[in-house]
Design a protein that fits this description.
The chain has helices spanning 2-13, 21-25, 140-153, and strands at 49-55, 58-70, 73-82, 85-92, 99-109, 116-121, 131-137, 173-177. It is of the alpha+beta class.
Length: 182
């Protein structure tokens, strides 16, 4: 009797992630940002703020997708934009050639954040935002470094999801349309 109930439950829930709408549209819980723990009401930046950073001759656009409060202040997780494309990556999930879409963040402490302006706030769906790579930065110059490195990595040909498990040095970095997080 217990085996029949178990089989029925497996049949109804369909454990195959490739066929699961939830897995295709949303990020797995282990990658989700901690947005539900942070009240951004009184912070200088809010979730979804599209900002422009002026670093020397460079103007970099980024969107705030993560906020981590620490003893030394709040750390803002910035996901860079190149035009209307945001920095992301596709990494394998399981062994069936299915990849999960994640976003790359550079974290900067609020005390080191300077020369920026808020352009607008974009309503984001946090169930679609999983953190792929994060890089803590000490200063605004390291933000510029991360941005430039990210642009260079995304010039390489991305390794298809089916080949990533066998590839010794896969290229995971890619761009996603800004609409992917809404």
């Amino acid at each position: 009797m217990n085996i029949r109930i178990l089989l029925l439950m497996l049949f109804l829930t369909n454990c195959n992630p490739k066929n699961s709408k939830f897995e295709d549209d949303y990020s797995p819980n282990i990658f989700l940002t901690n947005y539900w723990k942070v009240d951004d009401k009184n912070l200088k930046l809010k979730f979804g703020d599209l900002i422009e950073l002026n670093i020397g001759e460079e103007n970099i656009k980024a969107i705030v997708l993560g906020i981590n409060p620490e003893n030394d202040g709040n750390w803002f997780g910035l996901c860079f934009l190149n035009g209307n494309q945001i920095f992301g990556r596709k990494i394998p999930q399981g062994f069936n050639g299915h990849c999960v879409d994640l976003f790359d963040f550079s974290y900067i402490n609020e005390k080191a954040l300077s020369n920026y302006k808020i352009l607008k706030n974009i309503k984001v769906n946090f169930k679609k935002i999983g953190r792929g790579m994060d890089s803590p930065t000490k200063n605004i110059q390291e933000i510029l470094r991360d941005y430039k490195n990210g642009i260079e990595e995304r010039k390489k040909k991305q390794t298809p999801c089916d080949d990533k498990l066998g590839e010794l040095d896969p290229v995971n970095e890619c761009y996603f349309p800004l609409s992917k997080i809404q």
